[in-house]
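Just wondering, does anyone understand what follows?

——
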Amino acid sequence: MPPFPVRRFLLEEYLQLVDAGFFGTARVELWEGWVVERMTHGALASAVIMILDELLRASLPRGFALRVQLPLLCDESCPEPDLAVVSGQSSDFRKRHPLASEAPLVIEVSDSTLSEDRRHKQSLYARSSVPQYWIVNCVQRQIEVYTKPTGPMDQPSYRDCRIVDGLGTVTVPVANGAAGEIAVA
């Protein structure tokens, strides 16, 4: 904390500022009331996001949409995860952003941001009860699959973590089932 008064924003205030164009072209997100700059992606992480975009869109059943680096409402935060599977069709979100409760899967693709994705983002998604959170670990060429969020508490987390290496597959979750599998390689 700086040695002078600072102010945290409510989610509604932040969204009003975004709609009014206050942040211009700055790449920012709201994290627990604080406006923070978004990290940029390197070439590998960018390519992985594009590949996952193609694979996930091909596997999602009707009634689910894929959002790429777009807002997701999580209590008093508004992160823009690299990818998020949400219940509903794209047109359902013309007047609002989806809630974390509408996202069976949130994915962060990580190279230089691995520690942040494991601590801050994992905690935020667990607090918001996102059922499944993946960290695509580009450095170790694996996917960390986090399930069973603890929900709102002082130090939220996921009860289970499964590491899937380049020889394995991960199951794409949707409400009450699976949309298929993706090879980690």
In short: The chain has a mean pLDDT of 93.
